[in-house]
Structures are given as structure tokens and as C-alpha cells.
Amino acid sequence: MIRLHLTLLLALIQIVFTERMAVQLATGGRGMVMLANLIDPWLTLGLVVIPFWSDIKQVLGTRVFRLYWLPFTACNLVLPVLAFLLNGYPARGIFATWNAILPICIMFVGIVGTFRGGAYQRTISNYFLLAILVQALLAMAQMAGSLGYMPGPLRVIYEWDLAVKVKFTGNNLIVGRSTGFYLNPNSLGVWGLLAFWISFFLLEGRKRTIGLVASFLTILLCQSRGTLFALLGSAATYGIALTYRRGDREDRKRILHLTGLLAAIAIVLIATPEIGDSLHGLLLDVPIIGRAYERYLSGAMVFTQGASADANFNGRVSFWYEIFKYISTHPFGTLGQPEYKLGIPMDNQFVSAFAQGNLYYLGALLLLLFGGARLIGSSLNTSKLLATASIAIAINGITAVPLSYPASYLYWAIVGVFLAEHVTRHSKEVHP
Questions:
Q1: What pLDDT, on the 0 to 100 scale, is given for residue 3?
Q2: Which of the four pLDDT bands, split at 50, 70 and 90, describes residue 257?
Q3: What b/e readout covers 342-355, taking b as 16+ CB neighbours within 10 angstroms?
Q4: What are phi and psi of 219, to 5 degrees?
Q5: Over 90: is that where the pLDDT of 63 sits?
Q6: In the chain, N or C terminus with fewer CB closer than 10 Å?
Q7: Rounded to whole angstroms, how far apart are CA atoms 344 and 316?
Q8: d(C-alpha 194, C-alpha 42), whole Å
Q9: Quick check: 13 and 176 in contact, CB under 8 A?
Q10: DSSP 340-382
Q11: What's the whole-number mean pLDDT along residues 96-111?
């Protein structure tokens, strides 16, 4: 049991706290390496891999893992090394291989926790719920502090948080949006997104209610438009799939009509200024809601008015054109992190994969997402969880690079849980 607690604490530290545990190394002032990232794989090896290798080996040998998740993992391991050898990247860039090693470590924790069952799973749910609450509370404190609502004695929390972010983000500091224990609000958005679906499918009773409310509040406080659209899109997809699986023809018609009606109302409100102004004008004067609502509204207008409706999104599209130009003369991509060679931010998961590894890396990413999304019609909770999480990550990936954030390691824990249950079901079918 002690090993279990150490393993879970290690996993949560890796997922939640590593962006606050950065230490500057001798990298010419350009890079930072997470101290916990260096230690974590070795601790995972001793606490999880060696003691439970027989369980892990079963999963790694499955066809479903090798087909859908191994190609992406292999690319993450190989490409940084090739970037150093073939494309002029500095040696420190090889550390990016940890982007493959760390998610696999978290996946191993999910595998072992599922195989152990019973008390292990109850302990995991307790730790996870605590993490959701801690993230939500800090997000609330950050928002209250930015608006000047924090009482005197508690303001030290906000000041400490701001000092940490100023130290580690410099000119990239984002204020007015909650970041939780991360340094970027988009990271918190990915955490809230995955935490919401894990709470929905795996937690029960009061834990489930608390988890859903806290994670949804976290999503609103980070004010990530991509995350909110990802939540709504994945929820709509799950709702339609649920109806088609369980409902009769009339049920299917009703949900399609309802979905169409809601979409039509949203489009009318966004596209018709006189109607929209009369309804959303009151919201803009509310301190927290108004600022978030304005961000979400400008993001939604992209769907009706194109990229020019939102300056942020329009800038991203212009960056994407530059990437396509680079690929036309470098058919294997940048191999390493695209930002280093191109000097532009990567704000799209698919474009980032295309820039780094052309169609072969993009194909590996699509396989990973399809491997989960194809399960949306399943009747099993873990399969439905993986499906909605994959769809949510895919939608969020249009305006962010969620798989590059430590919060996305939660996704790999979900993959581990699914694969362990897949092995268990297959074993029962072969040896009933």
C-alpha cells in the first residue's frame, strides 16, 4: 500500500505540479528542464515497472496498443534525436524524448492501478478528486486576486502565484485568466477538460458531482475558448452516439432536431448584431462573466465570419501558411520542436505535428486520436471515456497543442486503464 501511495503522489506531481518545479540549467539561457521530469522515469521504473512488469508486458504486446498508440510514441522518441543529428538542433533538444517517456510512465500507473482493482481504484479516485479540488481552489484564488477581491491575509496566495509566473514565463506572462498550478491557462483548460470526463465516467455518487462541478468551474476560470468548445463538441458527440445506440428511430429524430435547433439559435444570436447586442450587453458589465463571455463570443464568431472575426485566430492562420512553405522545401519536417526552426508559436496540434514530421507524424497523431474516438458507441465506461477524451483533445487541438502540456498525461492514464481492461476482457473470452 505504501508503494501505491508513493506511485500516485508521483503521478499527480508529474501531471499537476511540474510546471512549478522548473529549474534553469546551463542551456545558454534558452531552455528549462523540469526537475521532476528527470527523476520521474527512474522512480516509476522502481515503483511500477519492475514490480508489475508481467501486467505491463501484456498490454504492450496487444495489437490495439501497437496499432494506435505506439506509432505516436515512437515518433516522439526518435524525432528529437534525428533533429540533433540531421537538422542542426542543439544537444539539449534530445531531452524532448521525455515527451514520450513521461506519458508512458503515467500510462503504466493506469495499467497497474486497473489490474490491482478494488482498494487501489478507490485510493486513486480519492487522490484524483483531491487534485481536482486543489486546482479549482487555486484557480478561484487567482481570479479573485486579479480582480482585487482577495482578503488581505489571503492575498499572499495570489502574490506568491504571480511571482512564480513572472519568474518562469517572463514576457509570456498571461494575466486575467486562471492557470491553476500550471503557467499557462490552456494547460489548466486541458486538465479541466479531461478531469470533467473522468469524473463523469469513473467517479460515483457525491464524488462524481463534486468532480464535475469543480472541473467545469476550472474550465470557465481558465477562459480557454478552445477548451470550452472541445467540451461542448465532445459532449454533443457522446449524446448523439448514446441516442443512436439506445434509442429508437423517434429518439434519434428528437435529438437531431434539438441539436439543430440549438445550433440555429446560437448562429442567429452570433450573426445578428441587433439581437446579440440586446442579450449579451448586460453580461459584459459583470466582472468575471463579462470578460470570459467576450472571449468566447469572439471565438464563436470564427465559425460564422471566418478567421478575420478574431485577431488571435487570424494571426494563427497566417503562421500556418508559413509552416506549409517550410514543408514544401523540407519534406521531412523540422524533426525537432518546430518553434526552434520556424520562430513562430505552434497553436494547432495537427499543424505542429505536420511541421515537425510531415505526413508520417501527422498520421501517427490521427491514429492515436482515432484509436480512442472509434469507441464512442461502446457500452463500457472506460471505452466511452477514452472516446470522449480523444474527441475533446482533437477539437482542442485546433487552437492549441494539448498533447504537449503535462495536463495531457491524464489522457495517457486513461489509455492505460482502457488497455488493462481490454486485456482482462480478452483473457476472460479465451479462458472463461
A1: 66
A2: low
A3: bebebbbbbbbbbb
A4: -60, -45
A5: yes
A6: C
A7: 9
A8: 26
A9: no
A10: HHH-S----HHHHHHHHHHHHHHHHHHHHHHHHHTTTT-SSHH
A11: 85
C-alpha cell at 131: 487534485
Provide the residue count of the chain.
432
CA dist 391 and 411 (Å) reads 11
Location of C-alpha cell 441587433: 274
**CA distance linking residue 391 with residue 369, whole number of Å:** 7
0.85 exceeded by pTM: no
β-pairing, 33-34 with 22-23?
A: antiparallel
Residue 416 and residue 299: Cα distance in Å, rounded? 34
Q: What is the DSSP string of 261-322?
A: HHHHHHHHHHH-HHHHHHHHTTGGGSHHHHHHHHHHHHHHTHHHH-GGG-HHHHHHHHHHHH
Which helix (H) or strand (E) segment holds residue 33: the answer is strand 33-34
Written as nine digits, the cell of 7 is: 506511485
For position 274, what pLDDT does the model report? 47
What SS3 class is residue 182? coil
Judged by DSSP in three states, 22 sits in strand
| Whether the Cβ atoms of residue 181 and residue 16 lie closer than 8 Å to each other | yes
Q: How far apart are CA 394 and CA 398, in angstroms?
A: 7
**Cα(403)–Cα(426) distance, rounded to whole angstroms?**
29
